[in-house]
């Protein structure tokens, strides 16, 4: 399997990139790309599935603090991110993440302000990345997902791109303060269009998104034995939904 190059936003492509991206944002992304390639051996697959324009809800599993960077760094478009409200308490860090298009959400509640902001950004034609597990995985399993994002998608009728991150649970496990070397894969699945999910309930749509992400992870673990985690050999990947984390 050959991954797409992460070096997509080089100066020779500025004319096609900058209409969708601020120059300062592009420069930050370029630094992130090289860091992830050198440190994490990051590779991206399925980028051709990602819509070139219009509002898109990118829904991914959650393995580390670097996930927002990883899921958008190979795109030609700026990403927008929901981040827990406590990350905005430090004014310097708040300035950085606001510059990177993050906005706060209160964990464990139906945050109507964040929901309305998500809808607004999708209606404006932006890419919004979200991690509906609500917490980082402890062992790489893809846990249950909250259905709130599916409700938002149905109201806005935005396409949903199921996205897999695999390998960050080893490069940056929860007990470590900083990431180490890794072998990370990011894969974009085929979009789920508004027509496809029109008759689904939010719970059904959420489960379909999760199923597709699990399917991508299972395929990687079956084809590349070195990527397999301890639990993969002892349980059916299609039902590993009881993973709990905080």
Report on this model:
It is a single chain. The chain has helices spanning 14-17, 23-40, 67-72, 91-99, 112-123, 148-156, 168-171, 194-197, 202-223; strands spanning 43-45, 56-60, 79-84, 102-105, 127-130, 160-166, 185-188. With 246 residues, it is of the alpha/beta class. The chain has a single domain, classed as Glycerol-3-phosphate (1)-acyltransferase, CATH 3.40.1130. Helix 5 (112-123) runs parallel beside helix 6 (148-156). The longest helix has 22 residues, at 202-223. Mean pLDDT is 87; it is low at 7-16 and 238-246.
Helix/strand layout:
Layout: H1 14-17, H2 23-40, E1 43-45, E2 56-60, H3 67-72, E3 79-84, H4 91-99, E4 102-105, H5 112-123, E5 127-130, H6 148-156, E6 160-166, H7 168-171, E7 185-188, H8 194-197, H9 202-223
Parallel strand pairs: 1-7, 2-5, 2-6, 3-4, 3-5
Antiparallel strand pairs: 6-7
* Fraction in beta strands: 5-15%
Low-confidence stretches: 7-16, 238-246
Count of distinct structural domains: 1
Kindly report the spatial arrangement of strands forming the biggest sheet.
1-7-6-2-5-3-4
Span between N and C termini? 34 Å
Shape: globular
The residue fraction in helices comes out at 25-40%
For this structure, the CATH topology is Glycerol-3-phosphate (1)-acyltransferase
Biggest sheet descriptor: 7 strands, mixed
**What do the pLDDT scores average to?**
87
CATH class: Alpha Beta
The CATH architecture designation is 3-Layer(aba) Sandwich
Instruction: Spell out the helices and strands N to C.
Output: HHEEHEHEHEHEHEHH
User: Tally the helices: what do you get?
Assistant: 9
Structural class: alpha/beta
Q: Give the full name of the CATH homologous superfamily.
A: Glycerol-3-phosphate (1)-acyltransferase
């Amino acid at each position: 399997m050959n991954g797409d190059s992460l070096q997509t936003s080089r100066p020779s492509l500025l004319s096609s990139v900058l209409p969708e991206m601020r120059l300062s944002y592009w420069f930050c992304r370029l630094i992130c790309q090289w860091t992830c390639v050198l440190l994490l051996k990051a590779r991206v697959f399925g980028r051709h599935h990602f819509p070139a324009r219009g509002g898109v809800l990118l829904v991914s599993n959650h393995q580390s603090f670097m996930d927002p960077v990883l899921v958008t760094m190979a795109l030609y478009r700026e990403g927008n991110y929901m981040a827990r409200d406590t990350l905005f308490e430090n004014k310097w860090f708040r300035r950085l993440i606001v510059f990177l298009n993050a906005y706060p959400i209160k964990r464990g509640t139906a945050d109507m302000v964040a929901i309305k902001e998500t809808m607004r950004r999708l209606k404006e034609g932006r890419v919004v990345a979200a991690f509906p597990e609500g917490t980082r995985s402890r062992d790489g399993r893809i846990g249950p997902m909250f259905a709130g994002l599916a409700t938002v998608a149905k109201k806005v009728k935005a396409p949903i791109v199921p996205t897999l991150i695999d390998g960050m649970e080893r490069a940056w496990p929860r007990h470590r303060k900083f990431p180490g070397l890794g072998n990370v894969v990011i894969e974009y699945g085929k979009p789920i269009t508004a027509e496809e999910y029109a008759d689904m309930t939010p719970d059904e749509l959420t489960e379909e998104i999760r199923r597709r992400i699990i399917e991508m992870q299972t395929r990687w673990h079956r084809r590349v034995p070195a990527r397999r985690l301890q639990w993969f050999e002892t349980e059916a990947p299609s039902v590993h939904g009881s993973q709990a984390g905080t």
